[in-house]
Structures are given as structure tokens and as C-alpha cells.
Amino acid sequence: MRILRAEEHRALDAATMEQEGITSLELMERAATAWCGRFLKAYPDKDREIVVLCGPGNNGGDGLVIARLLRFEAYTVSVLWAEIASGSEDNLTNRRRAKDSGVHIRTLSQGDAFPTFRRNTLVLDALFGTGLSRPIEGYWAGLVHHVNEQAVERVAVDLPSGLYADRPSGSAIIRAHRTFSLGYPKLALFSPANTPYLGHWELVPFRLARPREAVTEQANNIMLTRPLVRPLLKERYANDHKGTFGHALLIAGSYGKMGAAVISARALLRAGAGLVTTHIPRVGYEIMQISLPEAMCEMDDHRYHFTSAGQVDAYDTVAVGPGLGKDEATQAGLFQLIEACGSPMVIDADALNILGEHTDMLALLPKGSVLTPHPKEFERLFGKTDDDFDRWELQRQKARELGLVILLKTGYTTIATPDGTLYFNTTGNPGMGTGGTGDALTGVIAGLLAQSYSPVDAARLGVYLHGLAGDLAARELQQESLLAEDVVSHLGKAFGKLRQGAQ
Predict the structure, then answer these.
(1) Which domains does the chain have, with CATH numbers?
(2) Which residues does the record give as AMP binding sites (predicted)?
(3) Is 383 annotated as ligand-binding?
(4) Per-residue pLDDT tens for 75-117?
């Protein structure tokens, strides 16, 4: 699903009205009706008082329609209408309609005392929409801060007021507990910096024109969803065998860090690779053989560290990094490996940290290699950025420039491809923020590469499956108790879920 900029959403609205011969007022009614449908399912308790905070623009117009529709559904609902400006024509029309339907409307003017709310009130935020072009200031910023301090539950209509759709925002922003965002996704939804304002968010689709009919520039921000990922899965046939599914080499582990190697190797096999050889220091031999008898072991010359992988041409893919350490001999071995490897690799953890200290080596990586940094590793590799939006653009730029697939691990992991596309993953949960889950992801992607998935497909499918496995594990075990091994053990269920139907 395409992620659209604010101006693209406006173009899409205009295209919908033109194609269907409807007015902006009718489109507003359609969007608000869809929003109300989702709200009714999430908040069926009609005993709670609802206050809709409306501004004078189209977002406020949506709020006024919502207030009227909720009144029809027998909710106790009132409106606080902020007299920031005179109000758009559609907004004023829906204000009259809401009043005629029996909704109590109180006008809030600059300088008035801030309103008080009963405890447990539901405040629906429709104060400012995606058309906001400057930070909220003065009295209205004070109102936003005041609402945030109240003992109420805040639900945002489309986006929390004060949050820009596709760039960094100011300081006065509604802190929503839930956000029901209308239409197509917006970049703001995926920004780690916006998490405190969005709460739990989800999309509320409604009928619009096709994006390609409204967006002149090819959209290069894509949200990973099941319909996009499901067709990537390859079928398995009766005469397939372990040779069909590829042979991967995993270079991992060092003294005290063999667990990372075991987790990654197990994930590699669980992702479907036919054969796995682990190249590990001699100190890890018994650990690997006992922990994962399905994996073959190749011993390094050094007892405690990786120093040289030898010939790698016989393998379908190579993954390097989990638990590797940064010993001087390890660095030399990594550089030798990069020069010797002619096909895309998966590079993670300490291998990335070594490259972060020797960034000239990035240009020597095989084209199509998959890098899997977390934000700090990304910064060491490519430099500091001012905000999430700048970091996404740097990620895109470096993927193009170096011909790599760069995967940035955050709550909504992003995948930048050499053609400039940026994919945003939608699976996974905070319970996966524990040691070893990144090592598992390295194994999953390497396992898919071994089976001849393209680097881009291996990254997209691997990230989605890894997150889905984490979601399935969390449902069973709860987020607080999640371990990396739980994610790996639920990969089979994730494959099944993806094949069978929606989550």
C-alpha cells in the first residue's frame, strides 16, 4: 500500500470528487462515516461522555459529522468548536447539521478559560488536520497542553492535532491514546519520534480514487501488508530436496557470544534453508553441536575469534556478524571475506560496527547485499541525521548510491532498495526489543537468500515473517516474557499464517 504525502492526499480527494461527481461535503460525510464505523467497534460503551474538539477546517468538519453520527447512535456527545478562524464552508454546513440534530456546540474563543472534562471522558481530537502548515502557538498551544493534562482518553481523527503528515512537527501536539487515520497511510505514522502522540494507530479505509490517478510522481514509500508480501512466497514441490533449498554459510560467534550464533543459525534453518554451515571459533564447537545438531560446523583457526573463512564460493549465500566481536584479526578476516565474496551477503551486528569504523569498505560489498543496522549502527555507518524523516532519506540515498538493500531496525522497520523505494514493515511488537531478535532476523533473511529469493524479496519477506512470528509468540506468551528463541520457534506458524489468510 502506498504511503502518500499530504499534498497527494489532497490530490486524491480532488480526483475522487471529479471521477464520482460528488461534492467535498459528500466526501467528508463518507470519510467520517467510515471513521465512526471503526469507532463504534472500538468503543461500544455508550455510557461514556464524548466531547469532540473541532477546529474550523476540514478536519473539524469531519469531527462535526462524527458528532452528529454518534448522536444518532445514542451516544452522549457534545462539541467544543475552536474559533481559530471563520470556518470553511463545509465546516459551517456540518456545524449547522450537528446543531439541528441535537448536538450541543460550545464555541471556544481565544482568551476563554480552558474547558474542564469529567474523568473518563472520551475526547475526540479534530482540532487541526493534515493541512496544518506551521506549529500551533499561543492560546491554542496552551489548549493542546491543557487537554493532554486531563484525565481523559484522547482519540485522534486522522492525525493528532499538531502532527505534520510528512515532516518533523512542533512542540504542541495532542497526545492521543488511539489514532484512527483516514484513507491511505502517512509517513508520520511510522516515525519513532511520533510514537508518544499516536498511541495505538490503525488505518480506516474508505472509498477513494486509485492513487495512480491522482499522484503524478511515482510513489516510492510503500507499507508492507499481507497482500503485498504473500505472493512472494515460493511453492515447494514433491521432488524438491535439501539441495534445492540452498546451502548457507553463517560466520558468527566469539568467546562469550555463542548464543547469537546459535539463535541466528536456528532461524536460518527455520526459514527454510536446506543446509547450514556455521563458521565459528573453536571455543564454540561443542555449544553449536549440542544446541543445533542440524547445523554443520566449520572451525576457525583461532580459539576465541573469527579470523578467516577460507573458500566461500561453494555457498549460495553468506551471513556474517552475530556475536562476532571486533578483534583486530576479526576485522582483517571480514575485509578478506568481503573481497572474496561475489554474491549478496547479509551483514549484521559486529560486522556492521567494524564497517562503521572503515566506511571505505562499504563500496566493496557485493551489490545487493543486505545490511541490517539498528539506529546507532546506522549512524556509525552513514552519519548523524536531524530527525526520522532525514534518516529515511539518507537510508534511501545510500541504498541507491551503494547498490545495497539497507534495512533499518525500528518499531516499523524500513527497507531501502537500490531503486530508491522505501518499504515500511507493519508486523512486530515491543516485546521483540530483547537480545537476540536481531540475530534471528539475520538468519531468516539469509535462509531466504539461500533459497534463491532476490535480496529485495528476502528482506521484505524476512522482515514481515520475523515480525509476524513475534506477534504470534506475544499472543501466546505476552510481550514482557518474549525471548528471541520464542520468535524463532514461531516462524513455522508465521509461514502458515501468511499462506492461509489475513492476520
Answers:
(1) 6-219 (3.40.50.10260), 242-500 (3.40.1190.20)
(2) 409-413, 438
(3) no
(4) 999 999 999 988 899 999 999 999 999 999 999 999 999 999 9
